[in-house]
Amino acid sequence: MNEIKLTASDLDLIRVVQKDARLPISLMARELGIPESTARNKLKRLETLGVLNFSVVTDPLKLGYNIWVIMMIDVALSEIRSASAALTAFPDVYFVAITAGRYNIQVSAVFPSNTDFLQFLSERISRINGIKAIHSHTVLSVEKRQMAIIPPP
User: Fold this and answer.
1) What is the DSSP letter of 80?
2) Residue 142 — pLDDT band, cuts 50, 70, 90?
3) Which residues make beta-bridge pairs with 68?
4) DSSP bridge pairs for 153
5) Is there a single domain that holds both residue 72 and residue 40?
6) Domain extent at residue 71
7) Cα–Cα distance, 31 to 116 (Å, whole number)
8) Is residue 16 part of a domain?
9) Structural domain contains residue 55
10) Which of 54, 75, 104, 119 is the most exposed place for a label (fewest CB within 10 A)?
């Protein structure tokens, strides 16, 4: 993977956006002491490069999803890519990562009830080729949830 070269002012802009992504670009520029057009162009470049992605983060436990699970899945090596692709297709699943270590895939998903989670396990995920074992963990309370990685100084 090619590392993206970021300037000191790129990193400064990232820090400002992470403090308050809803801040108008004009105020970001003023805080950084740069022209608004420069801030706008840098922001667009960081988005285009995939360094910054803007999204809304919701709390599923406050939206009627009573079951929030993290699953560590052991998959046959030859099926990792196809299994991860199949998992991404489920609407209940919001995070899929191929991992190194004891398990090959990590999945996070939300369900309205235990019945829905059981149906997911027994009727949908069970049909994916190569899955050997699933170890599930239920999220009971979120103590810290930070989506932004602060760039080093």
Assistant:
1) H
2) confident
3) 110
4) none
5) no
6) 60-138
7) 48
8) yes
9) no
10) 54
Nearest to 72, CA basis, from 40, 108, 43: 108
Integer angstrom CA distances of residue 24 from 41, 68, 91, 148: 14, 34, 33, 19
Give the pLDDT confidence of 53-94 residue by residue, as tens digits. 888 888 888 899 999 999 999 999 999 999 999 999 999 999
Whole-angstrom Cα Rg for the chain: 20
Number of C-alpha atoms within 13 angstroms, CB side, residue 108?
A: 7
Close Cβ partners of 79 (under 8 Å, ≥ 6 residues apart): 129, 130, 131
66/134 same-domain check: yes
The DSSP letter of residue 83 is H
* Same domain, residue pair 64 and 130: yes
**Predicted TM-score (pTM) of this structure:** 0.77
